[in-house]
Give the backbone structure.
Amino acid sequence: MGGTLSTSALTLKRLNVRAVVVPLRRPVIAGIGRFDQWPLVLVDLETDGGVVGHSYIAPYRTAAVPSIVAELADLANTLHGRSVAPFDAYERDLTALNVVGVTGVSMIATAAIDMAAWDALAKQAGLSLAVLLGGSIGPHRAYNSNGLWRHEVSTLAKEATDLLQEGGFSAMKLRLGNIHLKDDLAAIAAVREGVGSDIDLMVDFNQALGLGDAIRRCHELDEQGLYWFEEPIAYDNLRGYVQLAQQVRTPLQMGENYYGPRDLFTFLSAGAMHYAMADLMRIGGVTGWLRAAHIASAAGIQFSNHLYPEFSAHLMRVTPTAHWLEWVDWATPILAEPMQPVDGQLTPSASPGAGVSWNETAVAKYLVRP
Ligand SMILES: [Mg+2]
């Protein structure tokens, strides 16, 4: 290019940020709390050429929305007028935010902008995100994560049956971590009563147990034929996970709470897990996912997503050790074209971009003032 710098054809003009709080079909009840509604922060990254990149992030707590919106506005100021280049922005954002910490709100805001930037680049190229990244469009196996929280055990058999039928699934995730073993066993038995024992049943403790109790509980549940044990103890207890990983026979699944690829590297290199997953909001958006997925693949560790099925379905197509897609429909109320699972599989949108766009009528209905 004759010595001139080659840059993306897109220049960031404006970042529009809105927040909605949508109803959940089934309340989320787990070791980390109870959630009856689900806040979503919607990002529209407007560019000079008219292309608009979209993303959403789900920060669990409605009260946390204003701090995230404020950080997004802060970052938008630094990006204004710059070429849309997610790798550059990711480094610049985290360098700038280092002084207040590179996890938490800093990483969440960085990730939201990153995802919208990748969506804009794919749209500009006229390609779906998976294709822009060098992959192809196709289905990937998924498990239904839209229920089986720590609800009343008498409801679990029926709910498991419903989950199976909601998209031809053969895998689902049950939340455990009750105080008493007998209650965890009763929950497993109820699900199996509803859907039999041929399905793949993942279980998630949502960090509910202390290390000693987790060692005991995991040994007691090792005979249950469960697919994975997810986060039995506090996610950052590295030494505890190393111990657990050596002791249990059911594979340990970890990673939804890792902030950035280095967290994954730290746990993988310590031998603290058997399976890994990433949450786009915390791992650092598409850019963070790509880096984390290659760390996992170099280590030979199978890699799944946590939430954000719309973007994740694209990214699984370029993840060498792609494992399971987690299917949640929690953003469906405000999406113009929500994904539909078919035969227990999810296929990323073939339209240009990531396939995330808003049902503006619904957004207006659920809009909250941050
Ligand atoms: Mg989990």
